[in-house]
Amino acid sequence: MQTSRKKISQITILDVARESGVSYSTVSRVLNGFDFVKGSTREKVLKTAERMGYVANIQARSLAGGKTQIIGLLVPGLDNGYITEIVSGIDQELAHSDYDMMLYTTHRYQGKESLYVKTIANGLADGLILLVPHNAQNYLQALPRQDFPYVLVDQIDNMYNSTTVDATNWQGAYDATAYLIKLGHQRIGFIMGAPQLNSARERFDGYRAALQHHRIAYDESLVIEGDYMTKSGYSGAKRLLSLEQPPTAIFASNDLTAFGVLDAIHETGLRIPEDISVVGFDDIPLASLAYPKLTTVRQPLVQIGQVAVRLLLEKLENPEREARRVTLATELIVRDSSAPRG
Amino acid sequence: MQTSRKKISQITILDVARESGVSYSTVSRVLNGFDFVKGSTREKVLKTAERMGYVANIQARSLAGGKTQIIGLLVPGLDNGYITEIVSGIDQELAHSDYDMMLYTTHRYQGKESLYVKTIANGLADGLILLVPHNAQNYLQALPRQDFPYVLVDQIDNMYNSTTVDATNWQGAYDATAYLIKLGHQRIGFIMGAPQLNSARERFDGYRAALQHHRIAYDESLVIEGDYMTKSGYSGAKRLLSLEQPPTAIFASNDLTAFGVLDAIHETGLRIPEDISVVGFDDIPLASLAYPKLTTVRQPLVQIGQVAVRLLLEKLENPEREARRVTLATELIVRDSSAPRG
DNA sequence: GTGAAAGCGCTAACAT
DNA sequence: ATGTTAGCGCTTTCAC
């Protein structure tokens, strides 16, 4: 179990110190951008460090109580345009900062999440972004004390008062449903997302609210449980289509689900949108690549990631800052998968 | 510049030692699975560590010369199903091991790659997987001595004798082209990938070889430079379609490019595959979601990731192991975007 | 078998 | 403005 590899010899701060004729800590100060260093000394140190190809040892820095300039990112998985878009936003925003990103996937690793959080918070990173944590409570509990800076994305928590970023899920779903109603659709199927997720519940509520406001009776048989995955869209649509009175439109809780719906409908030979309309949610990049191009509710995915980073950076700079919740607006994007009721 | 956050107090190995009435180093030995520890002691230590919620500090472990149980992963970006599929394979395989993954995106950060490599190799990780490094040489050079374990995915390097994983790009392209020829196509457009990538050149060679073997004259006007991105597929197809004698089939160097081709063709009103056939490469998940479903050359993406991990783990266990190159087979997947010449 | 002690490379008081 | 020194939490000789 012990393959004690020799430590690869490194150029340390000490080497740089020796080489540039100053002390140990002066080099540290220069490297950390401290003020009280003479200009000429700073120059000299920087130059020799550069010349010697010095690279800071993050472990040591972290251990000694310094910052790692790394922010941890916990995501369920990478198999989803929704996630990767947000990650991309995080990535972009981080590029403008001095921070690097370290990404952990929790997918398939049940129960490992809290270990990850602990490890990250133990010093591996200066801050943490939790993407769609399926049970935020558990994770947050794992945080050693609540003073470790973190931001929740697309999931609220009601135990700790966390800083969060999300989108107007309710409003988005309401808008999409109202839009379909305006097109003349009365029987609108709904395929729900993973019910443990806040967004799924909010979208469901938005759907129902729109029906109610337009005096359309809520029909339980038109609502299918799902999990935000393509498969659930496929099977859900199959079920809806086999109803005695099938819907003339289907609102899928996210685009991935909508793709499954599209597929199921294609198989039956029905035409989209002539025979049946389909609307998704998220506007992931593929939405406009699908055939027909998907009408959907756009979440500003990239922006969500960027805002998450900004909020975290704020916290990092000023730990006393109050937690807050930022909710970004969604927008209905009408493409080719929806049309007036035929 | 200095927001000296207090170090968050941790449960250390020392706490566990005190609590279980043994020494400091005994705990370390137990935690590292050393042999010479009495069974009862081991039990006791393990139990108290568990009870106290002890989580190892990776920084400290690494600094002291231990292993981090982290493998670093360098990817250009996450905006591509091709990458995320491989990452997913890596992730899956890692789940069966004691290692965690730390992912770095180099996208947009020109010149930062070698810094990353250095940082990672400095102790942040025990090994490194480089995904499609655009100029491997530069990175590898950065590795402090050549004894840091790493694996190259989908890119060969001819300077250092690196362990690599890739797929049969040449053969795959040959097969796809030969298939189109067999369908009766004579004028086959080709949209190339990013020319600095090995895979792009190999696929191009495969395309030409197939033409030659079937005695079809190579027509330069049918070959468009691209970069593996959707846009280049779109603009490339537009150009091909506006030719005096447009091709009856287009072979795109990857699926992303093929999507752009599909889009461009749809816009002109031409039917796929009746009027024109399209073939891609990679078989990313969307390939079967596109309309029409894309005929493509499947790369075993997930498997590539898995193999990369296995090779790295081998190296980790036995640093003396020789470098080797594993090339996995591609497979032509015929779907709905190709048909005999009309 | 187990404990004591010396670092790993760095930051952050504390001096000067 | 710069040097000195004490750790951070851990692994790893070296003793016992």
Descriptive report:
- 2 copies of one chain form a homodimer.
- Chain A has helices at 13-20, 24-31, 39-52, 58-63, 81-95, 113-124, 136-142, 169-182, 198-213, 230-241, 255-268, 301-317, and strands spanning 70-75, 100-105, 127-131, 150-153, 164-167, 188-191, 223-224, 249-252, 277-282, 295-298, 325-328, 331-333.
- The first copy, chain A, is an alpha/beta fold.
- Among the domains of chain A are: 1-56, 434 Repressor (Amino-terminal Domain); 169-299, Rossmann fold.
- Chain A is elongated and about 85 Å long.
- Mean pLDDT of chain A is 90; it is low at 1-7.
- Chain A binds a DNA duplex (16 and 16 nucleotides) through α2 and α4.
Low-pLDDT parts of chain A are: 1-7
Q: Report helical residue fraction of chain A.
A: 40-55%
- Biggest pleated sheet of chain A: 6 strands, parallel
| Backbone structural class of chain A | alpha/beta
Order of helices and strands of chain A: HHHHEHEHEHEEHEHEHEHEEHEE
Keywords:
homodimer; 342 residues; alpha/beta; 434 Repressor (Amino-terminal Domain); Rossmann fold; six-stranded mixed sheet; DNA-binding
Quick structural gist:
With 342 residues, chain A is α/β, with parallel strands linked by helices.
